[in-house]
């Protein structure tokens, strides 16, 4: 490493020595302290080696009388580079100007993007870009002339819906990161002192009190409207807060007869076309009156007639279709009727389950079935659905409750 640094500073030559007395020359150079590096024979009478530039003038006298000729193959090091620049005085200036030009081109902004942790409408992103452009932040401009802090302040002042804006550099790209103000939901706003009450009847499974005093414990049975968490701590009235989970129940009933009668289309039908006037009278155009079917199902389509484009006429065109129905007897085994009744009861029980007041999903639903035995050809099933859900909801204190809680707190002190 030290020799490489010296060779760079003082200069080094790659030389070719040609002659018959090359070994004698190398021995004489070694005796004189001339160091030749990288000696490599390229022919019986030729060698290549590296020679320090100051030693060139000491080596030349040794060549005389030995019939050895010296040829310079390469020049390396600072002296030769300085000599090269001295012969071309405009080259350093061009190099400096080129470096400055590249630096200036690298400072130009290629793209500007607007990001936000929440989805940002295109109109809001366009407004942010317009405010940034007014502050000097635009594509094609140099970052040297941009005041990013001033641009951030200008964006916040021009877009009051933002409470945070910061500009980041990513090479030639800029990222404007903004965060919009979020309206605090009503349930998270400051509320007056109040209790947490039950919205449904059930059996308490778990109660987590964040603020207030627990009024129930796990295993207690509560009804709708019962207080779960008092909005008081000592003598201080506060807004009760907590999570109360309870097991709730709902009941559903279903039945299915083993022998049933249904109506099915026979395939016979009747179609008619008639006009109905504004005064209520009708005029049958096609089809005539419908036959007297014992069981039938009818449907009609009404079309309003218009003159020219949007001028309605006081008459309607009625297409009526009547399908003949016939009774069809169905027979179910007791097991089939019981399964149908149970499915109907399960559907009714699940539909009867209350929904949590806070919108949280219901827990796992467990179903308990009970067959009601009656030997009358009808299978009856009662199903009880059980699940866990949050039943606590905030309710502000009345004046009587506030006075009662305050008096109780002072008495306790």
Describe the structure.
The protein has 413 residues and is of the alpha+beta class. The protein folds into four domains: 2-83, ACT domain (Alpha-Beta Plaits, 2-Layer Sandwich), CATH 3.30.70.260; 111-180, Roll (Ubiquitin-like (UB roll)); 191-258 and 332-413, no CATH class; 263-325, no CATH class. The protein contains nine helices and 22 strands. The strands form six sheets. A five-stranded antiparallel β-sheet has the order 11-9-15-21-20. Helix 6 (122-134) packs across helix 7 (148-158). The protein is elongated and about 140 Å long. It starts with a helix and ends with a helix. The model has no long low-confidence stretch (mean pLDDT 83).
Ordered list of secondary-structure elements with their pairings:
Layout (H helix, E strand, L loop, with lengths): L1 H9 L1 E7 L3 H10 L4 E8 L2 E7 L3 H8 L5 E8 L1 H10 L2 H17 L4 E5 L6 H13 L13 H11 L3 E9 L2 E8 L13 E5 L3 E10 L1 E2 L6 E2 L4 E4 L1 E2 L2 E2 L3 E17 L1 E19 L4 E5 L8 E13 L3 E21 L2 H19 L13 E7 L5 E13 L1 E5 L2 H14 L1
Parallel strand pairs: 5-7
Antiparallel strand pairs: 1-3, 1-4, 2-3, 6-7, 8-12, 8-22, 9-11, 9-15, 10-12, 13-14, 15-21, 16-17, 16-19, 18-19, 20-21
The 3D shape can be described as elongated
- Unreliable residue runs: none
Neighbour order of strands in the largest sheet: 11-9-15-21-20
Q: What share of the residues lie within helices?
A: 25-40%
Average of the residue pLDDT scores: 83
The computed structural class is alpha+beta
Q: Distance between the terminal alpha carbons, to the nearest Å?
A: 86 Å
